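ZP: hey, is the S-adenosylmethionine complex queued? I don't see it on the tracker
AM: it wasn't, my bad. submitting now with these inputs:
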Amino acid sequence: MKKVVTFDRPLSRVRADWSPVATVPCNYRSAGRSEGGKYVGHDTIPHLCHIELTYACNERCIFCYNPEHAKLGDIATIDRLVRAVAESQIPHVYLIGGEPSLLPVEKLNEYIELLAKHSSVTIVTNGLKRLVGISDRLACFGVPIHGANATTHEFLNQTRGSFEKTLDTVRYYVREGHDVRCIPVLTGYNYDQMYDIIRIAADLGMESIFVDRYEDGGVGSVHSAGGYDLKPTGDQFRIAVEQIIRAKQDFAGFGGRVGFGTAIPYCLDERMITEGITANCGVGTSFCAVNPKGEFRMCNQSQLVFGILPQETIEDIWNKPSLDIFRDLSWVDEPCRSCELLLDCTGGCKVDANCSDKFCIDYAVRGLSKPVAELVKKVEHRKLTEVYPGRYRTFRPNRYIKLTLRYPEKFLVTRYQTVKLDSMAVEMIQAVLDEAMTNERILVERFADRVEEHDVRLFVSRMIQVKALDLKEEVYDVAS
Ligand SMILES: C[S@@+](CC[C@H](N)C(=O)[O-])C[C@H]1O[C@@H](n2cnc3c(N)ncnc32)[C@H](O)[C@@H]1O
Ligand code: SF4
Ligand code: SF4
């Protein structure tokens, strides 16, 4: 049955400065880790931090996972949060909200300059307000297009005129040379528009498209409880997957950068595995969120607070035993508990309106007992290349890379990836950066007494693969 898409239907009451879900401090004491048990692994710091600059917003999306709509907070407080995140040198930082574009461009540029010394910075914005003059040190804009037409987009965000304004903003950012990622939210109202949304994103010259399946939280959960069909049904989800796969094949300009952005159970649709569009969110492993009060959570939708910035550092909070409330997997129910994919998939989205003060397996698999053993052998993660060309290459370091050496793990941060390097790889990338070495043959010679030529050349291939190095046109004979 076609869904009612109209402005006339009354929305559930959601007042400004009101929160359906209060945050809860986490005092979890793990029973102790057992030898041979399964635990979610992590590095000394998370790889991605979402800074929720504000809960103020100029749109009123009926699905929004945020707990409230608030007024723009005190800028000095936001400054302190951003400084604290910058000091921890987190590889990837998203400036998110609420709506970041409600802050002055100068302020956002100040944050980008501060963070970009060690982090790759993304702004996630609804595109209603255009940010003119954003620093080119910004790695990416994330902008959602929620419908293939104004009716659907504006029904979902309850903001008349926003569809054309957002498309214009995207055109402007693309013209200015920014990468712009399209991040629609998949709901029961737009599941059959995924192909057309991706076509629009391709026409606009967007860099990639990652679909966020609706997760039941915050303001969204008030509306879904009030009769709005925000959670896509199984059949709707499968239609969306079919459209996403077809669009990924048809719009080759994305270079395969089409898929899901939020965690979805791997077993929900086998094609997600066979087509390589599975997504996990990195809760407990690599992801964290900080709200405008500085409260550190493992996910934007989780209300469990593990510490407060800037009183504590991210690295101190991230390594607290209380995070075992997620990492010891004691919260996992069947069918995930006995699933061989558990450590990889970790049960889809772990937080929703029913468990935002704890963790739970995804709403779509709760209560199921589907065996997924046959899927295990089909899961393939992107592997590092094993090849290099017959000729030496010249290259230059990509302008977005940074090296973070202050933690036990040594991180190479590229525009969209975090790569862990061993000590020899650190020396080689330092030679490229500090000695301005842009020639593979010279790099081979420089390390000849310690590293096999084969390994130096593989290193160069892999650095090109992760976009740490940009390949130049010239290649010349190994013998020359
Ligand atoms: C909370 S918004 C903040 C940034 C900005 N206001 C925007 O809408 O892009 C961050 C991202 O989460 C997505 N989002 C919001 N509520 C969601 C929900 N309940 N489930 C999945 N994604 C959601 C939004 O579409 C947006 O891409
Ligand atoms: S999803 Fe973004 S634009 Fe929509 S209400 Fe939430 S914060 Fe605002
Ligand atoms: S861990 Fe759970 S959600 Fe993930 S594939 Fe296994 S059964 Fe499905």
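AM: back. The radius of gyration is 23 Å.
ZP: great, adding it to the tracker
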